[in-house]
Amino acid sequence: MDEEQLLPRHQYHHQDPIDTSLLVSLYVGHFLARWGARMWEFSVGLYMINVWPDSLLMAAAYGVVESASTTLFGPFVGQWIDNSTYPKVLRIWLITQNLSFIIAGVTVVGLLISPDLRITNVTAFTLLVVLTNLSGALAVLSTLAGTILIEREWVVVISEGHSSNLLTTMNSRIRRIDLICKLFAPVVTGFIISFVSLIASAASLAIWNIVSVFLQYWLLNSVYKGIPALQERSKKRGPKSTIATQHEHASSSTSQEQLIQHHDTEDLSEDVSSSNPIVRKFIRMFSNSSFIRAWRVYLQQDVVLPGVSLALLYFTVLSFGTLMTATLEWDGIPVYIIGMGRGISAIIGISATFLYPSMETRISTLRTGLWSIWSQWACLLVCVGSIWVKNNTTSAYLLMAGVAASRLGLWTFDLSVIQQMQDQVSESDRAVVGGVQNSIQSFWDLMTYIMGLLISNPEDFWKLILVSFWLVTIASIMYSVHIYRVRKHLFHFDKLLMLFRRCV
Would the CA dihedral through 211, 217, 223, 226 be positive or negative? Predict the structure, then answer.
């Protein structure tokens, strides 16, 4: 079967051109929301390594709380979005995200003002740490809601009825905005930390969210009110749009599959707990819970392997994340250099948003993913090689170089998988699948931080590098298996042979 036959054939009907000013408002609103999130993402590891020096313990503990919250509640966020109107999601998302970052910024200031607080007042120290962790986790959950709303819902709805290239273009621009924030937010924050103070950077985070929340809402609300397609789609949403009612309109084969699974679950519960009605009732309640139904919806999709492959890439310290940032600072790399390194990494990632549309047009979405994930794997070989470099500074710079170079493949692969999900997942399942996908990604992110807790000595960071590299290898193989299942081959060896003969 051809890969093109697996993609849905959209029947485009004429739509009035989209007002450019509305698209600009969408992009600017998204930029403002992502900037605050990227500021926190970069600086939280630096805050934690200063709160508890010479150990990755606090940084890893925060990562565990953040990732665990998304792993557990990600599917529920997707279902809540499915059952809520767009204006409701927009309001709750922006209020929760910005308020959480404000609280996090204030509590971090409290921790940094009194560096000896963990010794002089354990109760106050514990309270501030708990508040920082919980507010950061809540901010990430609300950011997830915004990501699903903008990237998985609005972009698709806005592009419907227009040229098929519009979806690819909007996906690339939205990802480009995120990477621009990933570029400049750490640079700005790094300079504030290096030339002013950590306290000033935490205060600036809180001030940014206080000032920008009103502008974010005004811009994104104007997009909703200005595009009739969003208003029409929002009217169809609400409490009645549950997963169960949505799947009543699914294909007969899917319905039969779900029915068989339901009977299998009941049979299993009866076999296991035939003598215990309380256990049987508990098993039935669990198997029919919204959490399990969301996973069933996800596992029925054709894009499971690409989704899991993308999620495995989150089990890594080979990014300018909390653990690697804290380790680089421990190695003596200046914070502003780390910020600039992260910025260069983001520039390379931004180039992926220009490369992807061209590759997708020339070699298809599927093959773009194949080439990109293996190019990421090849660049990370530099990081593995840095382990055996004796000079710590040189090793650190090689590590940063390998990570930065790999971003081209990573973000191209990310765009490829997102577009496969947009094309192949039905409208009724889109938010649920997005929630579960982010939950899986956060689970592997959680595993990274658990590894950081187990291997908390920065001197042993090389062990985390090797584990991360092997996970990227497994992800690359899994996606290759998916490509082979769909296309029945990986490469056109005859064309490669002809190219080789021409070169010779």
Answer: negative
CB 452 within 8 A of CB 59: yes
Average pLDDT, the chain: 82
Angle between helices 430-454 and 290-299 (to 10 degrees): 100
Q: CA-to-CA distance for 418 and 130, rounded, in angstroms? A: 34
Cβ burial of 340 (10 Å; 0-12, 13-18, 19+) is middle
**Model's pTM, two decimal places?**
0.69
Tens digits of residue pLDDT in 115-155: 888 788 888 989 999 999 999 999 989 998 998 899 888 98
* Distance between CA atoms of residues 63 and 59, nearest Å: 6
3-state secondary structure 270-320: HHHHCCCHHHHHHHHHHHCCHHHHHHHHHHCCCCHHHHHHHHHCCCCCCCC
Give the number of residues written for the chain: 504
Question: Which positions of the chain have pLDDT values less than 50?
Answer: 1-13, 240-270, 272-273
What are the residues whose beta carbons fall under 8 Å from the beta carbon of 278, sequence distance 6 or more?
none
Alpha carbon dihedral 411, 413, 416, 420, in 10-degree steps, equals -120
**Chain position carrying tokens 């409490």:** 239
Distance CA 431, CA 79 (A): 7
Contacts of 170 (CB under 8 A, 6+ apart): 23, 155, 158, 159
Q: For residue 213, give every residue at least 6 positions away whose Cβ sits within 8 Å of its Cβ, in sequence order, or none.
A: 94, 95, 98
Output the six-digit token pair for 197. Answer: 């103070």
Based on the number of CB atoms within 10 Å of its own CB, is 13 exposed (0-12), middle (13-18) or buried (19 or more)?
A: exposed
Evaluate whether 486 touches 366 at the Cβ level (below 8 Å): yes
What tokens appear for 235 in the block?
């009217």
